[in-house]
Amino acid sequence: MSLLLTDVTIGDRPGRAVHVDRGRITWLGDAVDAPSAGRTVAGEGALLTPAFVDAHVHATATGLALTGLDLHSSSSVAGAVAALREHLAAAAGGVVLGTGWDETGWPEGRGLTRADLDDVAGDRPVYLARVDVHSATVSTALLDRIPGIAELPGYAPDGQLRLDAHHAARQAAFGAVTPAQRRAAQRATLDAAAALGIGTLHEMAGPEVSGADDLAGLLALAGEQPGPRVLGYWGELAERGGLDLVRELGLVGAGGDLFCDGAFGSHTAALSTPYADRPGTSGALRFDTASLVHHVRACTEAGIQAGFHVIGDVAVRQVLDAIGTVVDELGVAAVRACRHRLEHLEMPDDDVVDRMAVWGVVASVQPAFDAAWGGDAGMYAERLGAERAAGTNPFADLADAGVVLALGSDAPVTALDPWGGVHAAVDHRTPGSGLRPFDAFDAATHGGWSAARREHPAGPLAAGAPADLALWATTSTLSTVLAGRERPACRLLVVGGEPA
User: How many domains does the chain have?
Assistant: First the structure.
């Protein structure tokens, strides 16, 4: 059925209308000239924009955080333990999954330990991810389910796990989630995204994040009814068979959270000089460069987009060097056509930015990271020192160089909050590093389509473009919303021409 959205404000122009048919925009113009349609929605002056695209999400983990134990607001060890105790009293048996704790600024001066969990959980298996999801504290009951975990890199007797030990614990914890729990969590994420005006989610799956069954189930669920679409990525090296699943499920790319390093908060991001608050470590790379070259080469030859999780400067340069090797072998045009992605990209130097622009590499970034941890007194400054911290997330430099920017949340690391991400990209904690308001909004909408190589040449609001639209409960113009840092509620979401 065709759809007409009439008397809407587009950009800064009120009194407009958009006609949709067969999933695409077929006409835009003044409302008085609008054609008829099978269904008409009277906008009453409301703002109409392209729907948001969240370019980096973990849907099942996000849904489990929405429906389970969320520790983001815990301000102490005691507070987190109290939240766990309350959750245990209300939840049925089985593994307890939680996320979001951050010991930065906690009065105890430490994070959660295995003893903290055992005191309240007893023989119940518990997995509580730190806010960056690159480390976690687990209970003895969960450790007992993982043979040989004490021999893995990153294991600590106090239950605070990093590196390979953390990946093993995460797999064990999420492997205990029932199909019904998984489906409910995924539905919670899709519903939350729809309510926020998010029309598309880039799901960053992989063997260390979520299994193939989890991803296949999410893709099937998203297709069952109108609502946010899911574009799937699988983060596994080609030499380990990663491209097979990309082809089998028809995924967008082979990458996303292909973890080349870790995270600042867990001291696992790979740095060229040691951490300021832990000078005995500089983090670690997870793959040798030859494996990354093989992956980029295999993806480029197959015309498949590759993607990499890179946070520390050493990891960023390692991946760019691998891409550069394939540029030398196959040529710039072949690499540019694939539009390979760097996820997070928190420490690019000028040379990295220049190479990304020339080679058509996408920057998939999370402005909420800077909002949460940037600034002179934030976690970045604590981990890196103030000078290095001020150079993180240089969005303006990337935009000025012509690098494609796509904004995401990395939910559940930070919340699904597209307007908040736009405003955080503008209000960067380092002066001069933020985006111009319209550039930030474009990166949160059109940027996600560009990152997935699916953009319409005339833009997201043009005849022929996919009809992914959000109608907002405000009569303000887009300029006013951006200038006032407003976060209007979504009145109607349209995805592929279908109201969600």
Answer: 3
Q: What is the pLDDT of residue 67?
A: 83
Q: Give the separation between CA 361 and CA 336, rounded to whole angstroms.
A: 7
CA–CA distance, 217 with 234 (Å, rounded to integer): 14
Query: What's the confidence (pLDDT) of residue 230?
Result: 98
Q: Could you give the C-alpha distances from 395 to 99, 151, 289, 360, in angstroms and in order?
A: 27, 40, 27, 16
- Are both 375 and 298 inside the same structural domain? yes
Q: Is 269 left (phi over 0), alpha (psi -120 to 50) or beta?
A: beta
Please tell me the distance from the alpha carbon of residue 406 to that of residue 60, in angstroms, as a whole number: 21
The pair of three-digit structure tokens given for residue 391, joined into one six-digit string? 């150079």
10 Å CB burial of residue 424 (0-12, 13-18, 19+) is buried
Q: Give the pLDDT score at 276.
A: 97
Using alpha carbons, select from 165, 145, 59 the residue that is nearest to residue 95.
Answer: 145
**Residue 51 belongs to a domain:** no
Q: Return the pLDDT at 178.
A: 85
Q: Which residues of the chain have pLDDT under 70?
A: none
Q: Kindly report the number of other CB atoms within 10 A of residue 377's CB atom.
A: 13
Q: Note the pLDDT of residue 170.
A: 87
Q: Which pLDDT score, from 0 to 100, does residue 208 have?
A: 83
Q: What is the pLDDT of residue 326?
A: 98
Structural domain that includes position 133: 61-175
Phi-psi sector, 101: left (phi>0), alpha (psi -120 to 50), beta: beta
| Residues in Cβ contact with 95 at an 8 Å cutoff, skipping those fewer than 6 apart | 124, 125, 126, 127, 142, 173, 176, 177
The predicted structure's pLDDT at residue 176: 84
Classify the phi-psi angles of 333: left when phi > 0, otherwise alpha if psi is within -120 to 50, otherwise beta. alpha
